[in-house]
Amino acid sequence: MNNTPKSPFKHILTAAFIAILATFSVSAFAEETTENAEAKTEKKFDAGKLIIEHISDNHEWHLFGEGEHAVALPLPVILYTDKGLDIFSSGKFHHGEETVEGKYKYKLLEENSHIVALNEAGEVDEAANKNIYDISITKNVATLLFSVTCLLWIFLSVANAYKKNPNKAPSGMQSFVEPLIIFIRDEVAKPSIGKKYEKFVPYLLTVFFLILFNNLLGLIPIMPGGANLSGNIAFTMVLAVITFVITSINGTKHYWHHIFAMPGVPKPVLIILTPIEILGVFLKPFVLMIRLFANMTAGHIIALSFFAMIFIFGEMSAGAGLGVSVVSVAFTVFMGLLELLVAFLQAYVFTLLSAMYFGNALEEGHH
């Protein structure tokens, strides 16, 4: 049996070795913890990004997923430049991570889905961008083409059914469309416009069904491929401008005389009243544009906000996310039902106000 005492030097070496291992272990654990914390921070749910992506236009049709795992349908990019036309798929941008070579070097800015030209240094070329016009098929344009195609198919099918069996009672799609057409004709066009209502019925029916169909498409904001065309101010602006042009072209002499010099009003008062009336001519279509845009966009934001609360509270704790999910889903369903009413109401209001503007423009003077 060896009872030789151990050297103190060995104890010192052993202690030093253990201390070094402990130091490296703590450092590695600290680095790993920091990396995990940073990863969690980077992957934190961004409710604002979710909402903005839905209500704004985009060069790709996002279906589901985030970041590298996102699944989206690329759309055609069409750029008219001073050097010629560039046409390519938005998928070449790879969610804004890569540039595309064409007449210029292009980059997609993810923050606003805007395509810009870059110079040789990789910086935004302001001079080149002034000569580039983006006429791409974006998500809203694709939605518009889809809705127009569906409406043409519906109404051509209904028209052919009436031609084949004019005496047969409406059935299927006819039974849904016919009451709406009669309602717009008898309850909106006739009372608001008067004897010459038939001239404006085609436009009123087009506007009503176009807005209604796209409003209904917008009721699926949290589903894959949800769109927000009727909540896009460019869409509502075009419809409002068309209403303004039709009103102005069909305005009678009495209508314009009422605008520029209201009968029976003292001339000094006309100095104040005439500018107000002229301003009102432009405010009417402006109100049409803002009302539809604001109502549909606000509804989508509220519905998505309730839905996003599930993930916001879920990051705090699983229990909180589960508890909030019951309330959030209930409010989301409630907002969906409310938006269903708003979808019909906003289409009706836009059509009714347009008919009233046409009626005012056609009104003859009373003697």
* Tally of discrete structural domains: 2
Work out the helicity level: 55-70%
Strand content: 5-15%
Look at the structure and give the mean pLDDT.
Answer: 80
The spatial strand order of the largest sheet comes to 4-3-8
Major beta-sheet overview:
3 strands, antiparallel
Structural class: mainly alpha
Q: What is shown here, in short?
A:
The chain has helices at 8-42, 47-55, 126-129, 139-164, 173-193, 201-217, 233-249, 253-260, 267-316, 318-362, and strands spanning 60-64, 71-74, 76-81, 84-89, 100-101, 105-109, 114-118, 133-134. The chain is mostly helical. The chain folds into two domains: 48-138; 140-362, no CATH class.
How would you explain this protein's 3D organization?
With 367 residues, the chain is mostly helical. The protein has 2 domains: 91 residues; 223 residues, no CATH class. The N terminus is likely disordered. 22% of the residues are buried. The longest helix has 50 residues. The protein is globular. The strands form 3 sheets. It has a 3-stranded antiparallel β-sheet with strand order 4-3-8, with no helix packed on it. The protein has a 3-stranded antiparallel β-sheet with strand order 5-6-7. Strands 1-2 form a two-stranded antiparallel sheet. Helix 4 crosses helix 6.
